[in-house]
Design brief:
Elements: H1 2-21, H2 30-37, E1 42-48, H3 63-81, H4 83-91, E2 96-99, E3 104-109, H5 111-118, E4 123-128, E5 132-133, E6 138-139, H6 153-157, H7 160-165, E7 174-179, E8 207-209, H8 243-252, E9 268-273, E10 275-276, E11 279-280, H9 282-293, E12 311-314, H10 326-341, E13 345-349, E14 371-376, E15 403-406, E16 410-414, E17 418-423, H11 425-442, H12 450-459, H13 490-503, E18 512-514, E19 521-525, E20 533-538, E21 544-550, E22 554-558, E23 565-571, E24 578-584
Parallel strand pairs: 7-9, 7-12, 8-9, 12-13, 13-14, 14-15
Antiparallel strand pairs: 1-3, 1-4, 2-3, 5-11, 6-17, 10-11, 16-17, 18-19, 19-22, 20-21, 20-23, 23-24
Length: about 575
């Protein structure tokens, strides 16, 4: 008995060591682990536990200030927390892609590398990266009356033409889209492409391709699975499917003649290809989100959050049955929330899985931070295919969709200079993205204020009760889980935005200082300033304790070496542009 007890006590530490040695396995998705154990390299996403604290972005006014702050924060966290894993991959000669926006890395590794990475404390988990299929629109060959030479019915239905009559067509606003790519030389799109100056094209900061390999799961036998019509990782915008071009046409399309297909024909557009002929993956989606936060040149360098779009359209599909799960849902939600904090509105199609309740289940579609769009027809009736709420995937029973827009018999641009009439919530969402561009061209002071923009669209929507109850939302009440707050009315939205701007005192040339009180790290942003200014900090007894030169933009000043207490500051030489108090707390 004593011997058995002694032996058990002796073996206990060894058993504990063995458990600890295998703990890394619990961080790897079971199916992914099985694939790794079968040998060879497997593509996956490494998710890290730490996420940037973006809560202070709400203290900033304006899209540029918010964007720069968010970009700096996510970059700092990713650089710090990913350092060891990046070294492991680099020493192994393994390439990888960093997604700072969600603090994740996409790579391909074997089992031993996966074990080394998963063993790191800072690593949350290792996730699969499945290819998933586009929620394909339904092509409609039914002729649409007045489809040429007349503004398309959907654009008229949301009252965009009345906004044009006020003099607002999207000028000064950039819309973004991640999709199957974009036929940038299409007659309705070339003039609006931000990389086109009327004579030559420069695709730096205006185009990104996240597709680097052929997907071999194409079920359509007429598709040559070995040859993408655009190529891979291309430096010039291209659409290998037509879906992206169709959505962009609805946002901004206008050839100056008889094809007036876009809601905001004077807005500019930039794009990211996230699907290979309709097949994308969590990595390709997140990569585009990451690029939109701070677009780069074609080499992927010199990121600049100041040129991020004002709104992004997302018409893609990734349900749980096709490989997306709560793990990569979380990564995409982190990305969506970061863009929102950066002042970029994320518009998402609800999906084509109706008419049953709780059929909104795609990533991005279900998130609180995204603006979800259902589809209606020309008589303001919900499309049978339009996905309904509420959100049950995460148990929140959150209301979705937010609003609805035209998504039946929508005529827009296609590849090779053509046009097509398609049905789908993919066709509805671009109407809303275009509407956001119209609102901001009328009230640019609201750029970056995503909460206000969404509230404006919801409160000015035309209520559309519908006799379908999706518990806990009665269909005959508004909002409901079928049509949300109703059909968008962009004319009413622009009027509301102009009223808001007229009643607000927008501070021009105002330096923003936060947090205050501070524990030592002080952010100062003067995004509207065009010249450098002197920042001086004085102690309570009037002694000058700190002097800094403020540049245009947002910068961090470290005051951690100063004692706790009350300080005063002034910005500007001679007559101060701004003065106030700062409290340092320890």
């Amino acid at each position: 008995m004593r011997y058995s007890l002694f032996l058990s006590l002796l073996l206990l530490p060894l058993f504990a060591i063995q458990l600890s040695a295998n703990e890394w396995r619990s961080k790897i998705d079971p199916e992914l682990l099985t694939e790794l154990e079968s040998g060879g390299e497997v593509e996956l996403i490494v998710a890290f536990s730490e996420q940037a604290d973006l809560s202070m972005a709400k203290n900033l006014r304006g899209k540029i200030a918010k964007g720069q702050f968010v970009y700096q924060q996510v970059q700092a966290v990713a650089t710090r927390s990913q350092a060891a894993v990046r070294n492991i991959l680099t020493e192994a000669g393994q390439s990888f892609q960093v997604f700072a926006i969600a603090n994740a890395i996409y790579t391909k590794v074997n089992l031993s590398l996966a074990a080394a990475i998963a063993s790191r404390d800072e690593v949350l988990n290792l996730q699969p990266n499945p290819w998933v299929m586009l929620d394909r629109p339904m092509r409609d060959n039914t002729p649409v009356t007045g489809s040429r030479g007349v503004v398309e019915w959907g654009v008229q239905s949301i009252r965009a033409v009345e906004v044009w009559d006020l003099g607002y067509k999207g000028e000064g606003i950039t819309v973004g889209g991640q999709d199957t790519g974009y036929a940038w030389e299409h007659p309705t799109l070339q003039r609006q492409y931000r990389g086109w100056d009327g004579m030559t094209a420069d695709h730096n900061y205006h185009w990104h391709d996240a597709i680097r390999e052929i997907n071999l799961l194409h079920a359509d036998s007429i598709i040559d699975a070995s040859n993408n019509p655009c190529g891979l990782d291309v430096d010039v915008p291209c659409d290998d499917h037509s879906h992206g071009t169709h959505t962009m046409g609805t946002m901004v399309g206008d050839d100056g003649d008889e094809n007036q297909i876009g809601v905001a024909p004077e807005a500019q557009w930039i794009g990211c290809r996230n699907m290979e002929r309709g097949y994308g993956s969590p990595a390709s989606y997140i990569e585009c989100f990451d690029w939109f936060l701070a677009p780069t040149n074609l080499a992927g360098e010199s990121a600049n959050p100041a040129v991020a779009p004002h709104v992004i359209n997302n018409s893609w599909h990734c349900p749980p049955m096709e490989g997306c799960n709560e793990d990569n849902f979380d990564l995409m939600e982190t990305a969506v929330n970061a863009l929102r904090a950066a002042g970029v509105m994320v518009v998402v199609s609800a999906g084509n899985d109706g008419p049953e309740c709780s059929t909104v289940q795609n990533p991005a579609t279900i998130f609180e931070g995204s603006f979800t769009i259902g589809a209606i027809n020309s008589v303001d009736t919900i499309a049978n295919f339009s996905s309904r709420g509420p959100v049950t995937t995460d148990g929140s029973f959150r209301l979705k969709p937010n609003v609805v827009a035209p998504g039946v018999q929508v005529r827009s641009a296609t590849r090779n200079g053509g046009y097509g009439t398609w049905n789908g919530t993919s066709m509805a969402a671009p109407h809303v993205a275009g509407a956001v561009a119209l609102i901001l061209s009328a009230a640019p002071e609201l750029a970056g204020e995503v909460d206000q923009l969404e509230t404006i669209l919801e409160e000015t929507a035309v209520p559309l009760p519908f006799d379908q109850d999706c518990d806990p939302f009665p269909g005959l009440e508004v909002p409901n889980a079928v049509t949300g707050y109703g059909k968008i009315d962009v004319f009413a939205a622009v009027e509301r935005a102009l009223q808001i701007v007229a009643n607000e005192e927008i501070e021009e040339n105002q330096w923003q200082i936060f947090p205050n009180p501070t524990s030592g790290q002080l952010w100062i942003g003067g995004m509207n300033e065009t010249t450098t200014q002197l920042f001086q900090l004085f102690s309570a007894d009037g002694r000058l304790v700190r002097t800094d030169q403020l540049e245009m933009g947002l910068q961090l000043i470290d005051l951690s070496q100063l004692r706790a207490g009350l300080y005063t500051y002034r910005i500007g030489e001679g007559k101060a542009l701004q003065a106030g108090r700062i409290i340092i707390q320890k």
